[in-house]
Write the structure tokens for this entry.
Amino acid sequence: MGAKVSRTDFEWVYTEEPHASRRKIILEKYPQIKQLFGYDPNFKWVVTGMVLLQLITLPFIQYLSWPMLIVVAYCFGGVINHSLMLAIHEIAHNLAFGHARPMANRLFGFFANLPVGVPASISFKKYHLEHHRYQGIETIDTDLPTLIEAKLFNTTFGKFIWLILQPLFYMVRPLVVRPKPPEPLELVNVIIQLFFDACVVQLFGWKAMWYLIIGSLLAMGVHPVAGHFVSEHYMFKKGFETYSYYGALNFITFNVGYHMEHHDFPAVPGSRLPEVKRIAGEFYDDLPQHHSWVSVLYDFVMDPDIGPYARIKRKERGLES
């Protein structure tokens, strides 16, 4: 478990991210893909159902022992909360109510955020859209591991710990790499979330509150649905920086596995990404792809060629190399 990774630096490139150019080529050949742009009218009902399901569960949590609470949080509540985090991802792209209704998307993001336990909706949007526009740029893309992470977690056991601590890194990394002043809607997000959390504690007790938070944290770490964090952009094959996964877990994660398609067409809702793949299959079929998020996590830990260093990075334009 102490074996070190073989890489000692990130993969530095001097090319643009690949998605804008591929988008242009695909649209020239298949302009009908533009008809997939927009929002999915069923999305809001699916998200509402998941939020209500979590709320219905809360009165029963007080009767669980702590070991059973952790099991239920890992296997059930955490899966729902992770799915809601991916709903927040969709909402960040205005795919709940469309680009013409930005405030409706923000308000619905507050609602989807509630069972997660910690305010994230607005902050996630603020940084995630830059991840698309400036993919791989070390000083802007906060999805990239920092040099400190890569140096500290460069052994087999270290990578396993890094996976467990992933929720911490996703929360802290933007504050270190690209700190920004809080936006007014972020403060609204915090107030609404704290009020909801206080209501949960008042009505159902602290155990129910810990159930929500523990589930969120566990499902972002060593968990099958968290495999997408690694599968999306870690360089499992040299020179390729985005990967898709076409397995069954897409069903409960709003098709986030169709990640090449998503980066090529972020205006297409997750429910329609398989149609992008069907129409323009020749652009994706021969690219490296994943078939199991569990295997991704296993390979990330055990393969010495993979680790936090296995990311493609770019220097920001205007900076000295």
User: Anything to note?
Assistant: The first helix runs from residue 19 to 29. The CA atoms of residues 51 and 115 lie 7 Å apart.
